[in-house]
């Protein structure tokens, strides 16, 4: 692993992935995108991992696409073909489709595809100094890594257009008020607060969490009747899980259940 590669560690069933290009404000070049994708694949397949956290080294969460890499591709006449967009899209789909709960611990600025990376997570906890900026229209560009899909669902169409069209810089409190993040904590407490939140999720029935994620993710494309059928099918799977049996035993024995995510 090179110094610039995203760092990864697993502790107490929580996988911590840290973007590690602080001098580039953790900008996403193709090697970083591919490394993140590989880490997500590995953590998804690892039964010891029950929650995944993304954060950034240094003072920024992620500055978005690596514009130096873009400029080099443009100089070669390969801006539209060198593969950044396809690689970024594959990563965003992978992150969004994970069965395991994901948390973005947003330290500092999250711009463009960096903001989109946070939007793909299930939860966003921001440090007080966090800032969010779409960045696209400021460069005479349109969203290209999922913002046009996530933002209207999270904050509504009009607020999404305001953030995208005017390219406003939103501080953490404004992001919280709009529903872009779920919690704001002091910068010094960010990782501790996220660790506590992640531990609560990791101790939960993560098999049921996975079924719930799938229901929410796919529900927008179904009618109510279809969603009820999907809920019934998912409920049968949950009912047959080891966690469900443990939950019933815990009730009978008047104790806290100990879930295994199976």
From TrEMBL:
Q: Which GO terms describe its biological process?
A: fatty acid beta-oxidation
Database matches in SUPFAM superfamilies? ClpP/crotonase
**Which superkingdom does the taxonomy of this entry point to?**
Bacteria
> Which GO molecular-function terms appear in the entry?
isomerase activity; lyase activity
Write down the CDD domains for this protein, in alphabetical order. Answer: crotonase-like
Q: Which UniProt keywords apply?
A: Isomerase, Lyase
Gene3D superfamilies reported for this sequence: 2-enoyl-CoA Hydratase, Chain A, domain 1, Lyase 2-enoyl-coa Hydratase, Chain A, domain 2
Among its keywords, does the record have Isomerase? Answer: yes
Q: Which PROSITE patterns match?
A: ENOYL_COA_HYDRATASE
Would I find Transport among this entry's keywords?
Answer: no
Protein family membership: Belongs to the enoyl-CoA hydratase/isomerase family.
For this entry, the protein name equals 2-(1,2-epoxy-1,2-dihydrophenyl)acetyl-CoA isomerase
The scientific name of the source species is Pseudomonas panipatensis
């Amino acid at each position: 692993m090179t110094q610039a590669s995203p760092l990864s560690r697993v502790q107490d069933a929580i996988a911590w992935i840290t973007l590690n290009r602080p001098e580039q404000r953790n900008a996403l070049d193709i090697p970083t995108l591919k490394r993140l994708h590989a880490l997500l694949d590995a953590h998804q397949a690892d039964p010891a991992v029950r929650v995944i956290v993304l954060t950034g080294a240094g003072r920024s969460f992620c500055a978005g696409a690596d514009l130096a890499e873009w400029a080099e591709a443009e100089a070669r006449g390969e801006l539209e073909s060198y593969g950044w967009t396809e690689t970024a899209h594959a990563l965003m789909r992978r992150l969004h489709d994970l069965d395991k709960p994901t948390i973005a611990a947003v330290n500092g600025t999250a711009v463009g595809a960096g903001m989109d990376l946070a939007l793909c997570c299930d939860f966003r906890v921001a440090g007080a100094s966090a800032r969010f900026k779409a960045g696209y229209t400021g460069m005479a560009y349109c969203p290209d890594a999922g913002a046009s899909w996530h933002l209207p669902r999270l904050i509504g169409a009009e607020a999404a257009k305001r953030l995208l069209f005017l390219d406003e810089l939103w501080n953490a409190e404004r992001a919280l008020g709009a529903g872009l993040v779920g919690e704001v904590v002091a910068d010094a407490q960010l990782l501790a607060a996220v660790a506590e939140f992640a531990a609560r999720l990791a101790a939960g029935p993560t098999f049921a969490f996975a079924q719930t994620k799938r229901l929410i993710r796919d529900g927008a494309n179904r009618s109510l009747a279809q969603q009820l059928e999907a809920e019934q099918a998912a409920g049968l799977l949950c009912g047959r899980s080891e966690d469900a049996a443990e939950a019933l035993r815990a009730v009978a024995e008047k104790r806290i259940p100990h879930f295994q995510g199976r």
